[in-house]
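Tokens for (R)-mandelonitrile lyase-like isoform X1. Go.
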Amino acid sequence: MAATPIRFRLPYIAVLVLFSAVFSHAASQPPPPQQGDPSYLKFVFNATELPSEDYYDYIVVGGGTAGCPLAATLSQSYRVLLLERGGVSYGAPNLMTQEGFLAALTEVDTFDSPAQGFTSEDGVPNARGRVLGGSSAINAGFYSRADPEFYQKSGVNWDLRDVNQSYEWVESAIVFRPELKNWQSAIRDGLLEAGVDPYNEFSLDHLVGTKIGGSTFDASGRRHSSADLLNYAKPTNIRVAVYASVERVLLASTMPHSGPRQTAIGVVYRDRLGKYHHAMVREHGEVMLSAGALGSPQLLLLSGIGPRPYLSSWGIPVAYHHPYVGQYLYDNPRNGISIVTPIPLEHSLIQVVGITEVGAYLEAASNVIPFGSLSQKRFQPSLHSFVSA
């Protein structure tokens, strides 16, 4: 589970990773309420309930995998608004349980389904989260720390002590050690038999070989998404607006010593009734985009930040020419094999992974699916391989 927040109160209005900067004080925060307690719902509002204009220290756009912990951490010292275009997952069986995983991914619509289907320009179908918790509320719940090579090659000067504290913070709240049953045990044994060595047992670290990873589903099969991390927030300092669709970032020209530049001063968002709201930042405040790999660059483009020729072709006034916004998105290719077994298997999402030297990831799940008719069901396990770019 990973997403990249974006901040752009900077001269180059560039995409920056804010992992260690945002969570550097996470270890000093008080423990959250009991796991599974949706205490955060007391500061979650339908966007229709919020004023037409208000001011905040920080505005976080996108209440997903990155946006929820980001907003929760900032609220310890600042007044924060978190904007999410979807609703809440709490109480929705298909989102909260392993058994509902496939249904949540397949029951998609154009308007407000938690999973929003889309197809890439080269014809590959996919889905992204449209719910508080983002894709961590609809995915298979597998958790593992990043490959250390990611930090080394990212071009960002990471404070690895803060990174590790951030990992520990997330893991203590929403990550669990899974209990392997028939299918996942067979996958583990099969990977080792196929030579995906060594066996690293249970580990949250990125390790070449076969291992049992963490899961965001607890022992009862209940999902814990990044929305649970909102339980760390300071309730008096945070508002979370759901069904709030951000239309654009509001910019103003400033004249610092280094020359003129565009600065984010707020956002315009629309509620479900079609009413527009203006959320503005106070002096020295910031707007942060954590709307995902598709949503964040889309908002930048709609706000006039991006390649001049492209913006002009759509009639969008150019606020800042940046040739790389909306470019160079790469996703890992996936190959899947599905089989129907003659004997019943339990529901299981991804718990075991095989990681090869060339960066391929071998994972598997088993699910009950309708077959032939809704009254006729079969157990369908599947094996997937991912290759990192």
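The chain has two domains: 37-141+222-331, 142-160+175-215+333-388.
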